């Protein structure tokens, strides 16, 4: 926030706000709309695109904007912006021209989100993508964005960004981050939209989104984003996920820094720890004298030190990432290469002929796996699973392979995933496990 707030203040003084467009009017989209309208100084949300325009209109209305302008072309959008009129559309193509600095893709989809991201990159606009898309083909999208001189990133306030902010902070102080983690209150791989319907209704979520939180899929995508940004792997398929009912600081003693270092560092999560929800980084320090100061400052005796954020404020913090990109060329998250993948496992005994329903559904859940192992076993990425038809039976908790499924033809996400493999090598060296 420091520096960014003053730079945004200068934009206010100049009458030159950062212009943002939003794709997706679900829970995150509605929250973002409210934040932009009421609290994001120096920034202006100019358009919301949604498959059902009435949902986009509703997002504006909930934020106090009663009469947004329907637009059907880039020219119409540009005129609406010029007139200071918030816009709605059902076509993301309207965003590819005109005075828009950044696009937020907030649908939680992979195939549709990939198309939005590609169009934004081709149009020379920064684009902020959902974790499911990022954890599937983020490295390929970011490589393309770098060539185009724009940024693809996650948003501040979401767990990956908050972890990577801590990672950068600790590294900047001279620490050696060895574990990046998420704090989770519940995990049950067999939850379904039926079991999560009540929770979803209470909080304005779709039942499938709520299910992805509970069954471990969402956290797997989040930690994959962190892994691909840091080069860290996972200690085992699905991560360790140690249970702990005390403060996260108390868990530093459960990890050996030499073992973590031998694995190249790991991404993981803690189940039930406090503060929840929060994120953490465990880091070592190479300097004995500094370790003495750290103990004096109540950071403990080491050898691992705990840095944590007790909250992540999702849509409230999200505009900071947009400002960082537009004003300073700084990506909140950057996937240097794919190190970890989210693979699809059977949520129940599945039969040949069944169609997989993807993230947050009834048929599969996602788990982290080191990419070299996933590629060696030809495992199906969770982000590509939706719509696949099983050609053989798959028992519960079994990882699904490409040989087990027939996927729809000519999907953009599948093409980009194959291009990602070609760019980075399909079987890069796996992190060491001890």
Could you characterize what this model shows?
The chain folds into 3 domains: 4-157 and 317-328, NAD(P)-binding Rossmann-like Domain (Rossmann fold, 3-Layer(aba) Sandwich), CATH 3.40.50; 159-314, no CATH class; 340-424, Antifreeze-like/N-acetylneuraminic acid synthase C-terminal domain (Type Iii Antifreeze Protein Isoform Hplc 12). The longest helix is centred in the first third of the chain and has 18 residues, at 131-148. With 434 residues, the chain is an alpha/beta fold. The strands form 4 sheets. Strands 3-4-2-1-5-6-7 form a 7-stranded parallel beta sheet, with helices on both faces. A 5-stranded mixed beta sheet has the order 9-10-8-11-12. A two-stranded antiparallel ribbon has the order 13-14. The chain starts with a helix and ends in a 10-residue tail after the last helix. Residues 428-434 have low confidence and may be disordered. α2 (27-38) crosses α13 (314-328) and α5 (111-122) crosses α15. 38% of the residues lie in helices and 17% in strands. It has helices spanning 4-14, 27-38, 53-62, 74-82, 111-122, 131-148, 159-172, 197-203, 207-214, 217-230, 257-262, 288-296, 314-328, 371-376, 412-424, and strands spanning 18-23, 43-49, 69-70, 87-89, 102-105, 126-128, 152-153, 176-184, 242-243, 266-271, 279-284, 305-309, 340-346, 364-370, 389-390, 405-406.
């Amino acid at each position: 926030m420091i520096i960014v707030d003053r730079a945004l203040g200068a934009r206010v003084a100049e009458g030159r706000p950062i212009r943002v467009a939003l794709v997706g009017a679900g829970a995150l989209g509605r929250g973002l709309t409210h934040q932009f309208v009421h609290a994001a100084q120096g920034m202006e949300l100019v358009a919301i695109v949604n498959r059902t325009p009435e949902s986009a209109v509703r997002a504006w209305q909930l934020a106090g904007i009663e009469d947004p302008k329907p637009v059907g072309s880039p020219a119409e959008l540009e005129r609406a912006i010029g007139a200071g009129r918030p816009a709605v559309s059902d076509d993301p193509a309207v965003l590819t021209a005109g005075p828009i600095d950044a696009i937020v893709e907030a649908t939680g989809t992979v195939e549709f989100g990939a198309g939005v991201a590609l169009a934004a990159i081709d149009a020379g606009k920064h684009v902020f993508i959902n974790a499911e898309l990022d954890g599937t083909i983020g490295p390929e999208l970011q490589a393309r964005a770098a060539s185009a001189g724009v940024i693809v990133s996650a948003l501040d306030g979401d767990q990956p960004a908050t972890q990577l902010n801590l990672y950068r902070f600790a590294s900047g102080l001279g620490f050696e981050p060895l574990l990046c983690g998420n704090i989770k209150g519940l995990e049950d791989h067999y939850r379904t939209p039926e079991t999560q319907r009540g929770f979803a209704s209470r909080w304005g979520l779709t039942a499938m989104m709520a299910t992805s939180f509970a069954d471990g899929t969402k956290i797997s995508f989040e930690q994959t984003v962190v892994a691909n940004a840091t080069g860290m792997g996972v200690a085992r398929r699905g991560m360790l996920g140690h249970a702990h009912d005390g403060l996260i600081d108390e868990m530093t003693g459960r990890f050996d820094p030499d073992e973590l270092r031998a694995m190249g560092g790991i991404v993981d999560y803690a189940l039930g720890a406090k503060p929840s929800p929060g994120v953490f980084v465990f880091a070592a320090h190479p300097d004995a004298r500094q370790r003495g100061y750290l103990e004096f400052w109540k950071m403990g005796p080491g050898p691992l030190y705990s840095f944590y954020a007790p909250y992540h404020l999702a849509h409230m913090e999200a505009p900071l990432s947009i400002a960082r990109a537009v004003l300073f060329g700084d990506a909140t998250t950057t996937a240097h290469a794919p190190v970890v993948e989210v693979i699809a496992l059977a949520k129940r005994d599945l039969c040949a002929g069944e169609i997989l329903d993807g993230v947050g559904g009834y048929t599969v859940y996602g788990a982290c796996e080191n990419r070299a192992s996933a590629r060696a076993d030809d495992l199906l990425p969770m982000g590509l699973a939706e719509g696949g038809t099983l050609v053989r039976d798959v028992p519960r908790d079994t990882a699904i392979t490409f040989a087990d499924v027939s996927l729809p033809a000519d999907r953009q996400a599948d093409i980009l995933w194959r291009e990602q493999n070609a760019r980075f090598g399909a079987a890069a060296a796996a992190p060491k496990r001890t």
